[in-house]
């Protein structure tokens, strides 16, 4: 092996355990099954989707490279049990699955927030995968990877962010067609400023849907402030 090849191999090895990170912070989990728990959020940079209501567009670009060991050290510094790996779309970085495994091995209660556009099969089975099914109102309904749905287990969760009545009826049909409530918890959320929470609540009650209504606790407390 010549010096150039050795240098390239060494650089590849050095970068094999790195992820591009937008932020790591401690807050309250604002949604899903673990809502209310003090949680460390690890926000990875980058996302291939452009949902019209996205509230984390600042994570599309930039970020800093972190060694996975350094990420775990920063998580440990905060001293809580719950960790949420989010984005952007965290699975757009392939080494995200390594981080998830390492967090589980360290004994954390780990959740993953994913758009549902990328294969979830390689995610550690100890992770609660919160899979977002994109509605027509999101502008990205064509990106849904329907092959993910048979992979869901009772540890996982499915989330629909709804922009109006048409989205609600679409999500209601998807729920029934795929029997999602028989696989895992299903969450219906109103898109902020597009759907009145009370309207969504009334529709769920009227239809007696087997879903959990949720609002984002962190937005009620801190609006869209990054790092909260």
TrEMBL record:
Keywords: 4Fe-4S, Iron, Iron-sulfur, Lyase, Magnesium, Metal-binding, Queuosine biosynthesis, S-adenosyl-L-methionine
Key word Iron present: yes
Keyword match Glycosyltransferase: no
Cofactor, how bound (note): Binds 1 [4Fe-4S] cluster. The cluster is coordinated with 3 cysteines and an exchangeable S-adenosyl-L-methionine. Binds 1 S-adenosyl-L-methionine per subunit.
Pathway(s) served: Purine metabolism; 7-cyano-7-deazaguanine biosynthesis
HAMAP family linked: QueE
PANTHER family reported in the protein's UniProt record: 7-CARBOXY-7-DEAZAGUANINE SYNTHASE (PTHR42836:SF1)
Protein name, per record: 7-carboxy-7-deazaguanine synthase
